[in-house]
Amino acid sequence: MTHDSPAPDLPERGFGRLDWAVAIAMMLLWGFNIIAMKSAVDSAGALPGAFLRQAIVAVVCLPFLRIVPGRMRLIGVLGVLSGGLFYVAVGLSLQVSTNVSALAIAGQLGVPFSLILAVIFLKEKIGIPRLIGIILALFGVVLLVFDPKVAGEMPAIAISACGSLIWAIATLIQRNLGGIGVLNISGWLGLIGSLVILPFALLLEPNGMAMLPNLSMETYAWTIYAALGSSIGGHGAMVWLLQRHSVSTVSPLTIPTPVISVAFATWWFGTPLTALMIAGGLIALLGVSIVAIRNAQRSRMLAEARLMKEGTRS
């Protein structure tokens, strides 16, 4: 196992101050990222901004890039989806949105989508609690449709939902890429993603691509934050925690992220937060929490069963 690769599910142990500090930093990095991405997209354009972000990730991670024998095809597919098309969808949704809080709520669909895909393609069985969680998550987002303050955000929410579906497909692929260093994976996602986004950006936003060398320092700073803070720092923190604690302990720590994103977006942009948005967000968050916690419990049960089986053999 490499020094920065995720570990298999580990026995439970105490969650110390350093662990909490890293977990809180991870949540804040990801939560604040919606501000950085919206600001970068507004200045650089959706596709040029996405290309620049992934290019920065590729350059920073270039020294850690390694060929992974037998798994490069999966990494290539993951790079197209998670490194390229996902950020195309994110950039376009941010570009047409004026209330990014609604996007933060719609972005929660990734968790139930990944579970639905696992049921369809991996024949994974889910119980009543996770089914209720999926229904609640979907219902919470659907509630936004009936909010007059969010009526103009429907195109952005629809694109964001497509992005969540792409992310969910990518998570199924990532299940087969355990044990690969996070900087190696990030480097491939940045390299392949930037190559995927490049033709779209040149075709659809040629002026924006031509202006990339002349962007303001503020726009560069926002993009660098999104690349280093969220893509590398946030995911690096997640991997560091997974090296020390079980998946069942770490996975639920991502639940507060959309709440933090909404709070930051409301504070930074002054966007309205209506009663229906709050209700929809809380219902969706409850549904995602049920799915995430039940997924974590299932991972722990499988890990314990595996350990018992290995103990019986020895």
TrEMBL record:
Domain EamA: from-to ranges: 22-145, 157-291
Source organism: Blastomonas fulva
Name assigned to this protein: EamA family transporter
Subcellular location: Membrane
Membrane topology listed for this record: Multi-pass membrane protein
Keywords attached to this entry: Membrane, Transmembrane, Transmembrane helix
Family statement drawn from the similarity comment of this UniProt entry: Belongs to the EamA transporter family.
Coiled coil: none
Domain of life: Bacteria
Ranges that cross the membrane: 20-41, 74-94, 100-121, 128-146, 152-173, 180-202, 222-242, 249-269, 275-293
The keyword Transmembrane helix is assigned to this record: yes
